[in-house]
Design a protein that fits this description.
By secondary structure, the chain is α+β, with helices and mostly antiparallel strands. It is built from four helices and ten strands, in the order βααβββαβαβββββ. Helix 3 links the parallel strand 4 (about 70-80) and strand 5 (about 110-115).
């Protein structure tokens, strides 16, 4: 039997955070950095448990994105993973259902950067591929992030978007998208 928790970082015990980090390190084959972890904290977490073991994690953090001269309060999805032996059973969808509910009630927009393997998953959930150029507001000014073009997806929540226009994210350490 699985149990889904939706909880803010502030309400998670250190042992749960340690388990989540270990799950992510394992799921991303050691390619999950300290910056990736830091960027996944400070918001809501969807945690999936089975028989007392953490088998899935996803988080939603607040960011500011700029589009067509408007700053959009954005729920940004981070650190989505399910243990390999539990994949293809709807666990990722269950976690995303929880985070999408929060996004629809609390934000102007949902956004995420998807791996090539996850593109179909997010598209099937109604996330739209951003076709326009991306950039980031860096300490030295706005800089293009061409390496992220083709991976950014958005979930509009009551805002009109030009998917071919420019989308600019706020600055953070590590991967900006």
């Amino acid at each position: 039997m699985t149990d889904l928790w939706t909880v803010h970082t502030a309400d998670l015990e250190a042992t749960v955070l340690t388990s989540a980090r270990a799950l992510l390190d394992d799921a991303f084959d050691g390619d999950f950095s300290d910056h990736d972890w830091e960027n996944a904290l400070g918001g809501m977490h969807a945690l999936l448990w089975e028989d007392g073991e953490l088998i899935g994690h996803a988080s939603l953090v607040q960011r500011r994105l700029l589009h067509n001269g408007r700053v959009l309060r954005t729920g940004y999805v981070e650190a989505v993973a399910v243990r390999s032996e539990h994949r293809r059973r709807g666990h990722g969808a269950a976690m995303m259902d929880a985070l999408e509910r929060v996004t629809r009630k609390a934000y102007d927009l949902g956004a995420l950067s998807a791996s090539d393997e996850a593109l179909e998953f997010y598209s099937s959930r109604g996330w739209l591929l951003w076709r326009g150029p991306s950039s980031a507001m860096t300490p030295s000014g706005v800089e293009a992030t061409k390496e992220d073009d083709g991976a950014i997806h958005v979930l509009p929540v009551g805002v009109t978007l030009d998917l071919d226009g420019e989308l600019t994210c706020d600055w953070r350490e590590g991967d900006v998208w």
